[in-house]
């Protein structure tokens, strides 16, 4: 039901106006963010293997390209270094285990272009309601500073 909530729609609404970008969607879930951008952008998608990825692949078909691997680090290579103008991660990073968050963020840094932006929504709070969420707020803030990403609005971080 999250993907039908007004808050989710408000979060992804700006994605519908983006065009001409090379985009990576990390943790696409049902594929809604990728779907919102696929017609006007070149979109690559990374989702962990499993039922959600299978569903999103059927939903999105050939409108996007898929990066396959067991971890995000598995898809980082010379073809993806600095490749993306925009990385989208909606409600993804809070699900990454603390032992893996630095690897995920490092992979994102390698894939983001020098003038790239990050569009994300993180729910690092409410662990009592969502025990599958981890509080990476300090690690995320330090990573943004290291990458030279400055928060421009509620969901957008841009290169300085």
Question: How does this model look, in words?
Answer:
This protein has 160 residues and is α/β, with parallel strands linked by helices. Helices cover 28% and strands 23% of the residues. It has helices at residues 6-12, 32-37, 51-60, 101-111, 137-147; strands spanning 22-26, 42-46, 65-67, 84-90, 112-121, 149-151, 156-159. The protein has a 7-stranded mixed beta sheet. Strand 2 (42-46), helix 3 and strand 3 (65-67) form a beta-alpha-beta unit. Helix 4 (101-111) packs parallel to helix 5. The longest helix is centred in the middle third of the chain and has 11 residues, at 101-111. It is globular. The model has no long low-confidence stretch (mean pLDDT 94).
